[in-house]
Amino acid sequence: MTDESAAGVMTGAQSSQDDVLVRVDNLVKYFPVRTAGYVRRTVGQVQAVDGVSLTIPRGKTLGLVGETGSGKSTLARCIAGLIPVTAGKVTFDGHDITNLSRRKMIPYRREIQMIFQDPYGSLNPRRRVGAIIGDPFAIHRTVTGNERKRRVQELMERVGLNPEHYNRFPAEFSGGQRQRIGVARALALRPKLIICDEPVSALDVSIQAQVLNLLADLQRDYGLTYLFIAHDLEVVRHVSDSVTVMYLGRVAESGPEDVVYGTPRHPYTAALLSAAPAADPDAAASRQRIILTGDIPSPIDPPSGCRFHPRCPKARELCGHEEPPLEVKAGDGPTHLTACHFPVEAGENLATAAAARREAL
To answer: Which DSSP helix (H) or strand (E) runs through 251?
Structure first.
């Protein structure tokens, strides 16, 4: 290889690396389960996140979906550095931020912010809105005095709030307005990544649309990168460039939004999409609902092999013994990954298979 060719390869590799803001490699987070009483013994572990890998391109939105207990919020908090990682690696903007000390994490706190699910519980009811939004400036000592007040009022106006309400308390605002306060607080230091943890699930549908449009406008204007967590598959479809589906601490399927929604390959993804409400009545009437058997297993003692196999309509003996790798299946694009030994084929009727499995049980 010539020097020029080598330089070209290095430049291409560097460009590819620069396009990725967040990289998570084989991340594991276990929580110990301890007995009650004076002498507390560890008797088990909650396997909240178990070997998850993903990337979030710069300026894009990754949607993270799955049932309650799948590990979505735990993964988000590990990425944000709010809880320590058991194993694995989190790389942010080319820097390894895995389990950094509080002091070393301070510069990255300015770059990574969160919008929380509950617009009522995430705001201190005893503090005025101006102080809440201005906290990032005070904590990181970036602006003070009148300049801080001016910046806070600019943020309030940018997210659709009246700047004159600077001295009001959170209780004087509606739920949608409170979530806008949370958005303004997250935006204050102009971060590169905002983690949105169920940001609209507690809001009315009409208000949801307003907040989602606001987030889209902010992403366009400031080049923000989002990790968007939600239960509502239609919301995720509306805002995401790519989607990762989690089940019991592991990634079941990931890929571009249109591919995952259009041709789901994992039976769990197909079941989730079959249960999602459709805006078109004709589409809703023609859709065959895939009803799974049982409930999501305990993360303290997850099933062996594929964790979805006790509920899967396509499960075979292999699924109970061997964990399927997250990989590209035959006929899929290079960015569409599925962790399944027997992925869903085009035109396959999973609803009938699920019904037969329920009858057999």
So the answer is: strand 250-256
